[in-house]
Structures are given as C-alpha cells and as structure tokens.
Amino acid sequence: MKSWKLAAVLPVLLALFLAACGPRGGSGSPLDAAPGRATEPPAIGLLLGTSPADHVLHQARAWAGDARLVARAAGRSRAHVVIDRFGPGPSSSNVVYDARVASTTGLNKLVIGNQLRNAEWTMESAFARESASTTPGPINLVSGVRSLAQHLQAFPHQTTNVVIFGDAVQTAAPVDLADPLQLADTRESLRSVISRGLVSPAECRGWRVYMVGGSLTPDGGLSSLQDEQLREFWREFFAYCGGRLVVWDSTLISFPSSGQVPPARWTAQHKLIIPLPSSVLFRPNRAVFLPGARPVLEELVRKLTVLYPRATAVIAGFTAMTAVPISGPSALVLSRARARAVAAYLRAHGVSADRLRTHGYGDQHQIPGGLAANRRVVVILHLP
C-alpha cells in the first residue's frame, strides 16, 4: 500500500522540482521579449572601429568592460547579437559574430545558467579578437551603419540596440568631418550624405544608438566644441533614418538605456560656429595668409554667398597665452589684424561689408588644447 502511494506521488514531486529549476520570467528589461512574441528576440548590434587609433584602445582593453556589460544584457534577454566592423578601406565592414546569446538545450536552471555564461563568453571573445584594418583609407562609419542595418534585417527581431565603438570622424566621401567647416555645418553635411543615397529614412527605424569613444581621434581627441558638433551630426543622422542617439560618451555606464541625447545648444540659436586654427590660415605671428589657406577661405565665401546668402558673420581672432610675449605686434593687435584679414577676403569675393563684424580678443578666452588650439580665428554665422 505504501509503495503504491509513493509511486503515485513521485511524478508530482518530479514535476514540481523541474518547474522550480526551469527558466523563469525576465526582469522587465527594455531588451526583454514582449508577450506573445517570444520567438522574436531583441537584437543588439555592435559596430567596432578598426582604425589604428581604435585598435590601440582595443588592445588596451579600454572597452572590455563595455563588452561585458552588453554581453550580460544580451544573456538576460536572450538577444540575437551581430558584431560588425567599420574603418578605412572598402572591405572594412564584415560580420565577426552573429548568434543568439541564449541557452540551447538546458532543461533546468543550472544547465541553462552554464550555457548562458558560455554564450556570453563566446560573444565577448569575438569582440576581443577584433583586429585593426590593414587597408589604409578614410574612415567610413556611414557605410558601416548601412552594412550593420542589412545584417540586422536578416532575422526577425523586436527592439534594436546598437553600440558603436571608435572614431566617428567620417572622412570618406561625400563628407570629411575632419574639415572644421564641414563639421560645423552638420545639416549641410548630412544633406550631402542623403543626396548620395547613403542613408534612407527607414534604415535604422527604432534603433537606440550608443556611441562610445566617437571623439577619440588619432591625434588624441577633439575640442569640446568639435565633440559637440560631431555628436550633433550623428544625432541628426540617426534621427533621419528613424532611430535615436541615446548615449554619447567615452564608456557605457549602463546598458540598455532610455532617453536620448538632446540637440546641441547652438542649433536653437540658429548659428554655426566654425573654429579655424591660425596655423591653417596665417604665417606665424603675422596676419598674412598661407598659400594653403585659399580652399578654407573659398568655402567660407560659398557658405555666405550660396548656402546662407542672408546670414551675417562675426569673425573673432584669438592668440595663445605664452610665458614669453610674442615678438612683433601685441597679441591683441595681431588677433584684430587676422580677423580683419579674413573679413577683407570675404568682402573681396562678394560678401557685403554690412554682413560682417570683426573682433580681436588677444589671449583672452583660452580653451583646452594648448597653444595650437588657442591660436585661432572663429567665424560665427548667424542664420536668419
């Protein structure tokens, strides 16, 4: 009699045990699958820069913690992860990892946990193995984004979180964001990309984009203004193709994140701020143009006569603060002379004088970046 009772109870106990050890519901993360769509996982795309500067950071494991953070989030939500790359050269974009970070055959919590940890480790290892591009050429993040979009479209999924690691200073045609005039005019630069058919309105629909280390260039980094201008270009870029930029930083603090990066402060003021190093325009300690200054000055003329014919311009000259005074004219006199030289060039090429104002500030208003960064002429266009 007792053995019969035990035989009847054992299946019930076994079922309760397996239910307790089996997979449990998610924590409500933004990456979790919605009810009724469990077969469609969330997607995570990682886009890795492969320029030499990016590779230095990669070798130093500067982003190892970020990759681990993403891997843990992918494991929690059973996300499908694609790791792609971008950089110089036509073959810089290719998939280095494409898999779902999930348990495969686990029947209980212990096995599932082990399989998840192994899947997360495999993803991290693929990230860590990425190497520098051996093909010289301009940085082409726009092409990398398009390639990643195609790879993500290859499987059904729900939410899409995309993390971009590396130098985001696009230098491949049709834009060169290393050029301060193109970087300052983010909307015109984006129009150039759109006009070439390199991005479409629905290409990154619903993406939440995290950009890590975008301002870390081979020269060490951008100024705070240039960082803001580069961030604004990519904010507008992803807004155009249907996504939103949620993080712009040197590292990931949390993942996933909500919210979005706000527009740059100067966009609401309807102005463009164009900082030009004096080393590009002028001979040392003089207000005489260098031979190589002509393309920069001609682009200024184009902006004021073709793109923004009703805009006014404030041209401000600055010098660096040095322990030993510069020889020749004083810092204030030199800064004024350089601002006036730029204005004179613009007037000589069709920009009316009543649209131009000049100021010289000498060594006032120093900015980070040392002597070279402070020897500058800043042109501020006020748009109607």
Overall description:
The chain is of the alpha/beta class and about 375 residues long. It folds into 2 domains: about 40-250, Rossmann fold (3-Layer(aba) Sandwich); about 270-380, 60s Ribosomal Protein L30, Chain: A. It is built from 12 helices and 10 strands. It has helices at about 1-20, 50-60, 65-75, 110-130, 140-150, 180-185, 185-195, 225-240, 280, 295-305, 330-350, 370-375, and strands at about 45-50, 80-85, 95-100, 160-165, 205-210, 245-250, 270-275, 310-320, 355-360, 375-380. The chain has a 6-stranded mixed sheet with strand order 3-2-1-4-5-6, sandwiched between helices. Strand 8 (about 310-320), helix 11 and strand 9 (about 355-360) form a beta-alpha-beta unit. It starts with a helix and ends with a strand.
Set out the fold topology.
Blueprint: H1 2-21, E1 43-49, H2 52-59, H3 64-77, E2 80-86, E3 97-100, H4 109-129, H5 141-152, E4 160-165, H6 180-184, H7 186-195, E5 207-212, H8 224-240, E6 244-249, E7 271-277, H9 278-281, H10 294-307, E8 312-318, H11 331-348, E9 356-360, H12 370-374, E10 376-382
Parallel strand pairs: 1-2, 1-4, 4-5, 5-6, 8-9
Antiparallel strand pairs: 2-3, 7-10, 8-10
Helix pairs in contact: 3-4, 7-8
What's this entry about, in short?
With 384 residues, the chain is of the alpha/beta class. 39% of the residues lie in helices and 16% in strands. It is elongated, with a radius of gyration of 27 Å.
